[in-house]
Structure formats: C-alpha cells, structure tokens
Design a protein that fits this description.
heterodimer, A: 284 residues, alpha+beta, Multidrug efflux transporter AcrB transmembrane fold, Alpha-Beta Plaits, 4-stranded antiparallel β-sheet, 70% helix, B: 486 residues, elongated
C-alpha cells in the first residue's frame, strides 16, 4: 500500500502546471507588495535591521514582561513551553542598551542576549542577498552542465525558483522574518528542492520505458525522499518550539514550508514541463 | 559460505574506509569520564551551549584605491595632513584611512592633491587587522580569561570590516571591560644604578608608527612615536636633570607596561646632544636588527599603544549566554537529534517493511553524523545552534540519497546480477553526485562570506555532503548488495 497513487496520465501538461502557476503568481505579487512597503522581499528580522533579542526562562507572563520592559522599544514577545520567552527589541542607543542589559542581568541573570547594530545588520543583509543570488546561479550552472538539454534544465531551475518564491511569500504571510537562520534555510532549500528534480529528470531522460511508468517510479522514490526529510524537520520544529530555541525553530519552519512546496513543484511544475517536452519529441 | 562472504564484505575498500573513519571519529571525539565522573567528550562548544559573551567591533576606517600623478609618498603625506588622521599605504594603489569618511566626502580631498579615488571599501587592510588581532589577544590573555577567540572577519576583497571576540565564562559586563580596558604605559629614566624616576605616561604619546628601519634599508628595526608638545618638554627636562643627556649609558630610558619593563635603552648620542638645547616630539626606539629586531619592534608597537587599537572602533553587535540556558539548549539539541533519527527510521520502515534494509540505512545515516562530529573535534570547531541545524540537515539529505541507491538497485523488484548491479549503483551515484554538487555550490558563498555565525553551518553541511558522497554512500551500496543477494 502506497501513500496514494500517482497517476497523471489523464492530465495534460497545461493542466499540471495550472495550480503551481497560480500559486507562483500570487507569491510574486505578495513578494512585490512586501518589497514596495518594507524595501525587501521578506520582512527583515533583527539580524538584518538591527535590534536586540532576549531569551529568558521565567514564569512571568507576557503582560508582566511588557510592564517590566515598558521603557524600551519592545517589538514582540513570543512564548514556548517550559516558560521560555523570546523577546525582541528595536534599535536603541548605547546608553539605553546598557541600562537594558543591566535590568536583565538583575531580573533574569540566566537570560541569553544578542544584539545587532543597525549598520552591521545592513552589511549582513547585503551579504545574505549576494549569497542567495550566487547560490542560485551556481545551482543553475550545475544543473545545465549536468543535463546539457535546455528545456529539462530550465524545468529544474524554474521549480527551485518557484519553491523559494512560494516559501518566501508564505514566510511573510505567517510572519516569519528573514534572519541569518532563515537565510540558511532558504539556501538549504536550493539543495533539497533540486534533489528530487534531478532524480525525476534522470529517470525520465536516461531510462527506457513508458513515460507514465517512469514518472510513477520516480514519484515512488522521490516522495519517500521528501517525507523522510519532512519527518526529521517536523521533529526539529516541535522540539525547538517546545524548548524555545528560536533560531532552530525558524530554520525548521521555513524548511517545512519549502519541502511541501517542493512536492508541489516537482510533481506538478517539473513533471508538467518534462511531459510536454517528451510528448513534443524531445528526450529520445 | 556465509562467513566467507562477510569476510569478503569487510575486506572491500569502501566498507573498510567507512569502518576506519568511524573508529578514528570515536577516537577524536574521545568520550570519557572526567575526574568528577561526568561523561565528557573532546567536542568544543560555542557560546550557544556554554556561558560566555561575544562582542563584534566595527572599524571606523576605510581602504581606498587611488591613482595619482604625484609621487606616492608626498601624496599620502599630504592626504594625511588634509584629513587630519593616519593614512597608511597598503600597496601601490591602495591607502588605509584611519577615520570614518564616506566616498563622496573623500573624493574632493583626493582630487585636490592631484589624485583620483578609484575604489572605496569600509574596513582596514589585512596587515592592520593582524595587528588588531594581536593587540586584542594580548589584552585578553593578560586578563587570564580561560578561553577566548578573536576572529577578524575579512570580505572577499581582502578588507577587514569587523572583528569578533568570543570569551567563554565571562558575562557581558566583564567582556565590555576587558575590551575597553587600556594598559598603563609609562616611561621612566634611570637616576642611579638601581633607581628610576617617572618621566611620562602613555597619554603623552600622540601617535605610534608601524615598525620601520632607521635609516631605511639598514636592517636596523625600531618603532617611531610622537610626543605631545608638553610631553616633549617634560621628556627634555627629565633627560637633562637625570643626567641622561650627558651620560646616556648610565641613565637608560625604560618603558613599562602595567609596571613591567618592556624596553630599556640609552639615548642615542645624537639625540642626547640635541636634547640639551631643544625639545623633540619625534622619537625612535630601536630594537635591533634582523627578524628578531623586527618581531621585537612589532611587540613594542603594541606595548606603546598600551592596548589601544590603531583604529577607532564601535560596537556593532554583542551578546551573551548564561550557563543554565546553554545547558538547556544542549539537552534540547540532543533530544531533537535522537528523535529525528528515530522518526526517519519509522518512515523508512513504513516504506520498505524490511529490517534488513532499514537497519543498515539508519546505521549508515548515524555513522555519517558520527564522522562529522569526529571531524568537528579534530578541527576544534566550536559547535553552535546553526551547526546543529546543519547536522540534522545532513541527516535528512543523507537518508534521501540512501533511498535513491536502494530504489535504483531494487528497480522492478528484482535483485540484479552483480554486473547489472554495478551499472545501477553507478547510475544512482550519478544522481547523488549532481545533487551533492548543487548543495556544495549553494553553501559555498556562505562558507566564504562574512556572515560569521553561518560559516559553521555551511562548512558542516558541505563536509556532510563530501563524507556522504565519498565514503558512506559507496559503502552502503556495497553492504546493501550483500544483504539483497542473500
């Protein structure tokens, strides 16, 4: 017994790519809107815009914390299990920061504090952007060199792009900010998303047999690959949420979203384009 | 028969390499009980997992590329005068300006001295960065801090914009004090055989030059420094009253840092005679010839600065972790890792329903993590939270690729003959190679850039990919063949 039967024989390439295309357009609209309002495709967190993040383990409620930190540029308070709280502040002057650290040191001596200056954040932001672009271009080059056929290579690169665009758009919708951790997660997605695309393309182009059988076989392998990763990431998400390890929680949330979009983009977008290419007479 | 095959399996080079690496990793990680009976390992933990603080400093300086029709030395000297700060020639076409200016502010100054500004990058040259690193290390060591790391963060252009200091076991306040603290520098003059007298403190020294040879090219090293006008007058006065100008050899000048003598030498005869009639602000402390002289000059420069950095800095970021939170993170990460491995095993079992396949898969997966931890121990890399995320990512991709191998070999449910088997294995490895190449290339910019805290994550992910492709996956292919053909 499989999870469910993957049979796309009766669908035309156009029908296959319909849903992902609509989603991609919506995602690009979201990204464009956010870019116009905040200047970046994803709302930057304190790693990039500057600010202070504090993790404390305390029985105090968010409302109590709010009164304690009333004099400071408090941005958000989020709560995990075990009384873990994650508090973020906007940028502040050196003297204000020093008084804040003194306050935290006296009230919550066991806290973790991390502070990023505004200009340092800007540098990180520029670098993260360059890293993403270089990584994406590098991935595209590897794919083109490996397959040396235009349409299938484009399909892989396009799927990876759609994957990142949809994930980034969803990050905005569910309110996950762009941080060093989530940038790393997006980079990891580049690697994850091409994994199953490469398997699919290799199976379809380099194996003998009926197209539909090859697609079914590739799906059987590909879906188990993605599910194992999803399983690992879900565990990571639950444990880090419960333990209030925000860096890992964000990384795993972004990965999880990306992996679901990867299923969609590999088995609809990429398959759609590949099917069109093979039916048209390519790949023989 | 069966025993023979097992023997054969273990003499296969792919399996052998895997076993050797696992053994080496366990040795490198070295789990053992410490004197208190607690289980410890050789793994090093960064600031996420133990108490400590980090401070990142940004340099108020820039490295500027230029062209000029004037002689370079005069050009630089004039520029230094115009900008009222130290301007140091980095190479034939670049200067380091030790004050914060933006590009459009600088361009007119360059133009008025007969030059053109070609490039602009905030930060300092790598030579200055090395000096900063040495000064900070010396300062931290003097405080007796247990475990500290000073990393200059250099971009692709070779210009260093930030330096990051991590100190274990120190809280934020202490860290700021250590970084901000300056040593007490003093010059004293010998009055009698074993008596010295105070001349001036470090605050009278207005600037310190880099080590140089005097005269140029003589191989005779030393450090030049400048005294304030008042300081120069005090220095002249002390030299005359102590008798140093008349009998330099018996009235040596000593430099002390935090009451330790770091340099002692008589006045040169020329200086001694000139001091009798006039003050001088430019002094040169010679340290001897050859490499020894040069090294000593470098040390003396740091001491003359009394722990002050050659460039102004501002705090760009800082943070600290408490001992209890670090412990909490460590426990959580351990739980996450073990649960992730179990979950992955469940999913694999759901698919194959065959312990003979699932067990080797999970074992190979776990051995990949073990080898990576061994590698982390050997390079003494300090684990932090992003590294753990990287390790779990390796777990995820690793199992993916074992699935590719298994499915490729089991194609159409028939266990193949050895010849067909090898063909299929190599096809599976091709898919894996392409996938690995994309991950490597995607992580490369992170490993090379300044995104300091993510470098570890990128390196671990890349290492994981390499270990997987080169060692564990080929070994898995060999082992699973043996199991399937039974």
């Amino acid at each position: 017994m499989g999870l469910f039967e993957y049979n796309i024989e009766k669908y035309s390439p156009k029908q296959l790519v319909l849903i992902p295309t609509v989603l991609l357009v919506i995602s690009l609209v979201v990204l464009a809107y956010v870019t116009l309002t905040v200047g970046m495709p994803v709302v930057p967190g304190i790693d990039f815009s500057g600010g202070t993040a504090v993790t404390v383990i305390t029985p105090d409620t968010p409302a109590q914390l709010q009164t304690i930190f009333a004099g400071y540029p408090l941005v958000s308070i989020s709560q995990g299990l075990n009384n873990g709280e994650f508090i973020t502040f906007g940028t502040m002057s050196d003297t204000q920061y020093q008084s804040l650290t003194a306050l935290i040191a006296s009230k919550y001596p066991d806290a973790q504090i991390n502070q990023i200056g505004e200009s340092f954040g800007k540098t990180l932001q520029d670098q993260a952007f360059i890293a993403l672009i270089i990584a994406f271009i590098g991935m595209a080059i590897v794919v083109f060199v490996s397959f040396r056929t235009f349409v299938p290579s484009c399909a892989v690169v396009l799927s990876a792009f759609a994957d990142m665009a949809m994930t980034a758009a969803l990050m905005n919708i569910v309110g996950i900010q762009l941080s060093l951790g989530t940038t790393a997660a997006l980079l990891m997605l580049i690697g994850y998303s091409v994994d199953s695309d490469i398997l699919l393309t290799t199976r379809v182009l380099k194996r003998q047999g009926k197209l539909n059988d090859k697609l079914k076989g590739a799906f059987r392998t590909g879906i188990i690959m993605t599910s194992t990763t999803i399983a690992a990431v879900i565990v990571l998400l639950i444990v880090s949420w419960a333990g209030q390890i925000v860096v890992i929680e964000q990384i795993s949330a972004v990965l999880l979203m990306g992996l679901f979009f990867d299923i969609l983009n590999t088995w609809l977008t990429n398959v759609g384009i590949l099917k069109w290419y093979v039916l048209k007479g390519g790949g023989k | 028969m069966r025993q023979e095959r097992i023997k054969e399996l273990f003499s296969d080079w792919r399996v052998l390499v895997l076993i050797i690496l696992i053994v080496l990793s366990v040795v490198a990680i070295y789990p053992h009980f410490d004197s208190n009976g607690n289980l410890t390992t050789n793994l090093q933990y960064g600031l996420d997992f133990q108490q400590g603080s980090w401070i990142q400093l940004k340099f108020d300086a820039e490295v500027v590329g230029f062209t000029t029709t004037e002689p370079v030395d005069t050009f630089v000297a004039n520029l230094s005068k115009d900008l009222d700060t130290d301007v140091i020639l980095v190479d034939a076409t670049h200067v380091e300006i030790r004050k914060s200016y933006n590009q459009s502010e600088l361009a007119p100054y360059f133009a008025s001295e007969g030059g053109t500004l070609v490039s602009y990058q905030p930060g300092i040259s790598s030579a200055t960065a090395d000096l900063v690193k040495q000064i900070l290390e010396q300062k931290i060591n003097a405080m007796g801090t247990k475990d500290a790391k000073v990393n200059t963060i250099t971009g692709l252009g070779g210009v260093t914009q930030y330096v990051r200091v991590e100190m274990a076991g120190v809280n934020m306040n202490q860290a700021q004090q250590i970084i901000g603290k300056q040593g007490k520098f003093e010059i004293r003059v010998q009055t009698t055989a074993n008596q010295t007298e105070h001349v001036l403190y470090g605050d009278s020294i207005t600037s310190v030059e880099s080590p140089s040879q005097s005269p140029a090219g003589s191989g005779n090293w030393g450090v030049g420094f400048t005294l304030s006008q008042d300081g120069a007058a005090v220095f002249q006065n002390a030299s005359i009253t102590s008798g140093a100008t008349i009998d330099p050899a018996d009235h040596k000048l000593a430099m002390l840092l935090d009451n330790q003598t770091v340099y002692s030498a008589p006045l040169s005869s020329e200086l001694a005679s000139s001091l009798q009639t006039q003050t001088t602000t430019q002094l040169f402390a010679s340290t001897g010839s050859g490499t020894a002289g040069m090294n000593q000059a470098t040390n003396l420069e740091i001491q003359l600065r009394a722990g002050a950095l050659p460039v102004d800095v501002e705090i760009a970021g800082s943070g600290s972790t408490s001992a209890s939170l670090g412990q909490h993170y460590m426990e959580m990460c351990l739980i996450a890792g073990i649960l992730a491995l179990i979950m992955v095993a469940f999913v694999i079992f759901y698919r194959y329903r065959e312990p003979r396949i699932v067990l080797p898969m999970v074992m190979i997966n776990a051995s990949e993590i073990l080898i990576l931890l061994g590698f982390i121990s050997v390079i003494q890399f300090q684990m932090d939270l992003p590294t753990v995320a990287g390790l779990i990512a390796v777990l995820g991709t690793g199992i993916d690729q074992l699935v590719v191998i298994t499915d490729e070999i089991l194609h159409e449910g028939i266990v193949p003959s050895p010849n067909v088997y090898l063909k299929r294995l190599s096809r599976a490895l091709t898919i894996i190679m392409i996938a690995a190449a994309t991950v490597l290339i995607a992580m490369l910019p992170l490993a090379l850039m300044d995104l300091s805290t993510l470098t570890g994550f990128a390196i671990i992910t890349m290492m994981g990919v390499v270990v997987g492709v080169v060692v564990t996956r080929p070994a898995y292919g060999r082992i699973i063949m043996e199991i399937l053909s039974e």
